[in-house]
Amino acid sequence: ESVEGQKMQELRRSLPAYKEKEALLNAISRNQVIVVSGETGCGKTTQLPQYILESEIEAARGAVCSIICTQPRRISAMSVAERVAAERGEKLGDSVGYKVRLEGIKGRDTRLLFCTTGILLRRLLLDRSLQGVTHVIVDEIHERGMNEDFLLIVLKELLPRRPELKLILMSATLNAELFSSYFGGAPMMHIPGFTYPVRSYFLENILEMTGYRLSTYNQIDNYGQEKSWKMQKQTLRKRKTQIASAAEDALGAADLRELNPWTRDSLSCWNPDSIGFNLIENVVCHICKKERPGAILVFMTGWDDINSLKDQLQSHPLLGDPTKVLLLACHGSMDSSEQKLIFNKPEDGIRKIVLATNMAETSITINDVVYVVDCGKAKETSYDALNNTPCLLPAWISKASARQRRGRAGRVQPGECYHLYPRSVYDAFAEYQLPELLRTPLQSLCLQIKSLQLGSISDFLSKALQPPEPLSVQNAIEYLKIIGALDDKENLTVLGRKLSVLPVEPKLGKMLILGAIFNCLDPIMTVVAGLSVRDPFLMPFEKKDLAESAKAQFSGGDNSDHLALLRAYDGWKAAERQQSGAEYCWRNFLSSQTLRAIDSLRKQFYHLLRDCGLVENMEKCNTWSHDQHLIRAIICSGLFPGICSVVNKEKSVSLKTMEDGPVLLYLNSVNAQEPRIPYPWLVFNEKVKVNTVFLRDSTAVSDSVVLLFGGTVS
Ligand code: ADP
Ligand code: MG
Question: Is 98 helix (H, G, I), strand (E, B) or coil?
Fold first, then answer.
């Protein structure tokens, strides 16, 4: 065994989970279901599945056991599998493998499979009793994702039919009772852990300590939207979540008399609706000047604010100096080389700063963190039951999350945590986050319930840990009826059955099916694949202008991000045939990794559509592939009612949706560059709320297209 390998084994034995190994294995053998909780980093994810595998091998059941461990995110399924294989001194695909959508490494002898929750649900579609599976481990259940909650209902129904199947639920925080009682009082096992004390500072302390002054001007300046500020604040206030308004009340009622007068003034300028980049820069700088080494972990809300902040910090004299600071990002779409850097200790004298999403809250443990900066928010999908459009917006985190974030600072030595909001706001946080099932559109889920033949949708969902609102369930059912996926009696129609086979949301599935029916399949497959993978257009901040004009050149005055994507993809395919794909990507600021993912998803779509009889031959189904009007119309039919009106002003374009009033376009949208848009409407796929509502990826459409392919707009 190599030195590296021995070190890893030593590390394994030093984890808190190791001491509980026998007790855990005992509990598993004596019970069908157990709930395991323990501090993040104690070894649940990487160790427990291995303990089971090892004990099965010892009991001479190694050849017949099949352990599935689900992860809420694809990136964790992949990185955990890689880590576990390395700990076992094996290659991925030997006894340990992984499977996520479009990718996987799994061999004939693979006995422990890490996969996303979605993959296990798809498997249940084909094999309702999970034949051959001996253990199911559902990880990170405390996150309460929609897929995980759904999976728990399905497994609960399955257990009596598979008495020998073992179910292990794993969670970081201590609300294990909830899950235990859901499974009829399943035993709870806790892995005791040790963390060093962490000192907390709230906004008022930070202001006093750093001397930084907040002003209303500063906050507006961050986003340069002074004019529309007032109006946005009003719209935001109207739609504010319960937590946020409670937070505001608490702030008003807080006893601030003990503070410096100027801190009090400064605090009254604090804007709860925005994330102050200047404040973060100031705090990070304050920490960097400290003697004590240790990495800084900054919790942000998502890819976009992480990138904007990174851009801002990079131009700072101290934070942008690579001889002193190593600035890294940690989010769901980072690449694997960047991921490795996150775990590595930097050279002496260099301060590591990781800007992360709430992924670093529980699924990833960075061992050398000593300082945590917590912006207090996380991006959440939320949902207007009335217009069926999902919306990603930053929302206040829960007390449980804030505690979890703070805990990240005390892994190796006593730490410090800087919460960028007043103490009184923390006091108003909810105890736990609202489960996703209660705040997202349920169309895909309802379709899945039907195709898994789980009976009445409402009855089934009423068996959830926390059942969703009847109005949301009703809306989803209505939507599925309108698009013709369900009939009047809530039975799956032929279309519904076909939609449930396609691994995309119903609205995107509908576009694919229309593309096939109208013989315009090729471009629609590209558009749908692009929408469900991610944007292939890169926007490096140092070269923003070049990147924007590279994208604009693909739009050709069509006023459509979707058509731009289509042309970029087609151009890349042509370049690939000439062996110049890489150069093409480099020249046009495109991600070849994303384009390849789009390419393989397209192939998958084609096979699936052929298997369900929607496509007979590749030539015929593309007779109308060059018809731009038709492509636009099919895009509209899928994205509707995600629509906003266009009014051309003298020098700018003003956009409005029915629910939000004025909205803005993401700067990388081709429509954001246009001085006027010669169409009355834009359809869009997604709204993101940063400080105001932004639309991502839009296509301009005419009145008649909206009437024929969308619906009525008032
Ligand atoms: P838990 O699931 O209980 O949060 P994990 O099993 O994920 O804990 O992690 C246990 C330990 O292994 C942690 O100290 C973590 O830092 C370390 N670890 C996990 N993955 C990696 C990796 N890819 N590289 C280096 N260390 C890792
Ligand atoms: Mg874990």
Answer: strand
| The 67-71 sheet, strands edge to edge | 103-105, 96-100, 112-116, 67-71, 135-138, 166-171, 33-38, 188-191
pLDDT averaged over every residue in the chain: 87
Residue 536 alpha carbon to ligand 2 centre in Å:
30
Ligand 1 atom nearest the C-alpha of 366 is 16
> What one-character DSSP code corresponds to residue 707?
I
Cα of first residue to Cα of last residue in the chain, in angstroms, is 71
Q: Is 367 in the pocket of ligand 1 (CB under 6 A)?
A: yes
pLDDT tops 70 at residue 365: yes
Polymer length in residues for the chain: 714
The H-or-E segment that residue 327 falls in is strand 325-330
pTM: 0.77
Can you tell me the distance from the alpha carbon of 647 to that of 354, in angstroms, rounded to the nearest whole number?
Answer: 42
What does the DSSP 8-state code read for residue 590?
A: B
Which of 42-56, 219-233, 400-414 has the largest mean confidence? Answer: 42-56
Radius of gyration of the chain (CA): 26
Nearest atom in ligand 1 to the alpha carbon of residue 339 is 23
* 362 Cα nearest atom in ligand 1: 4
Separation CA 480–CA 483 (nearest Å): 5
> Is the separation of the CB atoms in 320 and 379 below 8 Å?
no
The residues, ordered by sequence, that sit 6+ positions from 43 with a Cβ below 8 Å of its Cβ are 12, 15, 16, 17, 18, 191
Which alpha helices (DSSP H) does 36-90 contain, by range? 44-58, 74-87
Closest CA to 693 of 299, 441, 394: 394
Residue nearest to ligand 1 atom 10, measured at CA: 43
Would strands 96-100 and 103-105 be described as parallel, antiparallel, or unpaired?
antiparallel
118 in Cβ contact with 125 (< 8 Å): no
Q: Would you give the DSSP letter of residue 672?
A: G
Higher per-residue confidence, 117 vs 101: 117
User: Is the bond preceding 641 in cis, omega lying within 30 degrees of 0?
Assistant: yes
ipTM of the complex: 0.98
Is the pLDDT at 210 greater than 60? The verdict is yes
Q: What are 511-546's pLDDT values in tens digits?
A: 999 999 999 999 999 999 999 887 888 877 667 788
| pLDDT-based confidence at residue 219 (cuts at 50, 70, 90) | very low
Place of tokens 């852990």: 193
Q: What is the pLDDT of residues 482-512, one digit of tens each?
A: 778 899 999 999 889 888 888 788 889 999 9
- What does the pLDDT look like over 666-684, one tens digit per residue? 878 999 888 899 999 999 9
The ligand placed nearest to the CA atom of residue 40 is: 1
What average pLDDT does the segment 59-70 reach?
A: 95
User: What pLDDT, on the 0 to 100 scale, is given for residue 308?
Assistant: 85
Helices assigned H by DSSP within 393-543:
399-407, 423-428, 443-451, 457-461, 470-482, 494-501, 506-517, 521-532
| pLDDT cut 90: percent of the chain above it | 55
**Share above pLDDT 70 across residues of the chain, in percent, rounded to a whole number:** 90
Q: Is the CB of 55 under 6 A from ligand 1?
A: no
**Pair of tokens at residue 288:** 């960097």
For residue 315, give the amino acid letter.
Answer: S
What's the CA-to-centroid distance between 266 and ligand 2, angstroms? 40
Place of tokens 């789980």: 454
State which ligand 1 atom lies nearest to the alpha carbon of 191.
3
Q: Which of 13, 75, 83 to mutate to test the pocket of ligand 1 (most atoms within 8 A of CB)?
A: 83
Q: Decide: 376 in ligand 1 pocket, CB within 6 A.
A: no
Ligand 1 in contact with 365 (CB < 6 A)?
yes
Answer yes or no: are the C-beta atoms of 404 and 448 closer than 8 Å: no
Q: What are phi and psi of 536, to 5 degrees?
A: -80, -10
> pLDDT-based confidence at 232, cuts 50/70/90?
very low
